[in-house]
Each structure stands twice: as C-alpha cells, then as structure tokens.
Design brief:
It contains twelve helices and two strands, in the order ααααββαααααααα. With 246 residues, it is mainly alpha-helical. The chain folds into two domains: 83 residues, Orthogonal Bundle (Arc Repressor Mutant, subunit A), CATH 1.10.10.10; 137 residues, Four Helix Bundle (Hemerythrin (Met), subunit A), CATH 1.20.120. It has a two-stranded antiparallel sheet with strand order 1-2. Helix 2 crosses helix 4 and helix 6 crosses helix 8.
C-alpha cells in the first residue's frame, strides 16, 4: 500500500516494490492505469502471469484480490479477471493515484481534480481557522520554514509543502477531510512535475507568500482569509498542473 509522501518522493525516481506481493500489484496496477491492460480486456491466465512475474499462484491471486478491492479488476470463475472501467476505480486510494500519476493521467483529470480539491481544501482551511489549535499552528510554521530551506530540492520541498496541507486537514478536525489528503498529494506532485518540466529552480518562491497568508489567517481565526489563502495556493498548483505556468 502506498504511504503518504510516496508519490512526491517518486519525483526523484520511482521506488522499487519491497516484496513479490507488492511487486505484482504494482506491475499489474501500472499496466491497467497505462492501458497496457485495456479497460474491458481480460488479464492473461494464471500460468502466463505466474511465468511473467516469476511468482507463485498464491502470490498472484492475493495480488488480484488487492486490485479487486481497489476497483481496478473483477475476477470471475471460468471467465477470468476483467479490467474494470475507470469510473469503478477508487480514486481516493493512494496507490491507484500513484499508478495514474506515473501512467500519465487522461486529459481532463487534472482539471477534475482541481475542482474537487478546491471544495475539500478550502473547507478544511476555513474549519482549521474556526477550530484553531496551538500545536497544529506550531507545526505549520515549522514546515513553512522547511519549504524555504528545501526550496531548490523538489522532493524535500514537496514533502514540506504536503505536510502543511496535511496539517490543515488535521486541524479541520473533520475525518473525511483528513482522509482526502491522497488527492492533495497527487495535485502537488502534478504541479511540481510541471515546474520541473519548465526548469523551475526555486520551488518556494511563488508560493511562500500565499502559504504565509494561509497560516496567519488560520492563526487569527480568520475563516474567510484562510479560505482565500488556500484558494491562491490552489490556483498556482492548478496552473502548473495544466501546463500553463504559475
């Protein structure tokens, strides 16, 4: 299972799977997301897949069960394992998002994500301001400082920025918003990839002001200011994700 931060870390090189089970899940998942195993098609039979990935039948079937739980495939007796339509995929699952990211998202996916992210993260920022607590504020300021220290390192900067967004979700005290941070990480990674492609060297420069404004508004309990600060950050990320620059 993908962990928080893994997608951003992969910007510096895609990490290898840690065991046979995760290797097979990752390879089939990437194959589905990339279209190597097209929607509606049936995966090759067990014997061929066991030979391809050099794993046992038990490992293969456990991997398929995991992929079923994520909505990517459906296994039926005497029929085989069919690749399901994208509208069945669990897009809140970090690992599914990881595969989509590295397979290159379909046109329109970044825009759809931006729409959903605005609703979730602006609300999280407003609730964080309304329910202000000292410890999350202290940690937000710590990670804001880290974004400056790591401004020229995509992975370290990205992880520091992600921690700010994760803390805002935590500070909202809303469990649904806390559970949505996989979407946030995907969007941040998309924006960072756009900046890398454009040759940006200082990842903090454009967003330092909006991050400072967001954190200051949350600290003073300014709901509207917190939502506005988050909106500014989302606008910048959306622009880079869509290849339009900041």
């Amino acid at each position: 299972m993908a962990e928080p931060g893994q997608l951003i870390r992969s910007l510096s090189g895609r990490p290898a799977a840690r065991n046979f089970h995760s290797f097979v899940i990752n390879e089939i998942g990437m194959g589905v997301a990339s279209g190597a195993f097209p929607v509606g098609s049936t995966l090759p039979g067990d014997a061929e897949m066991m030979d391809r990935y050099e794993v046992s039948r038990t490992v293969l079937r456990e991997a398929v069960k995991t992929l079923e739980a994520k909505g990517l495939v459906e296994a039926r007796a005497k029929v085989g394992t069919r690749v399901l339509p994208r509208n069945r995929w669990n897009l809140f699952d970090r690992q599914v998002l990881f595969w989509i990211f590295h397979a290159t998202p379909e046109p329109g996916f970044a825009e759809s994500l931006a729409e959903v992210r605005a609703g979730l993260e602006m609300q999280a920022a407003g609730l964080a301001a309304a329910r202000r607590q000292a410890e999350p504020m202290r940690m937000m300021r710590y990670w804001l400082a880290q974004t400056q220290i790591a401004a020229g390192m995509v992975e370290n900067y990205g992880l520091a920025a992600f921690e700010i967004h994760r803390l805002v979700a935590e500070a909202s005290q809303n469990p649904v918003l806390r559970a949505s941070t996989g979407l946030t990480e995907f969007a941040l990674a998309m924006a960072l990839r756009g900046q890398l492609a454009a040759g940006v060297g200082d990842f903090a420069a454009q967003k330092s002001g909006p991050y400072e404004a967001l954190i200051a508004a949350i600290d003073r309990g300014d709901i509207g200011g917190a939502e506005a600060g988050m909106a500014d950050l989302l606008f910048i990320d959306r622009s880079w994700s869509l290849g339009r620059g900041g």
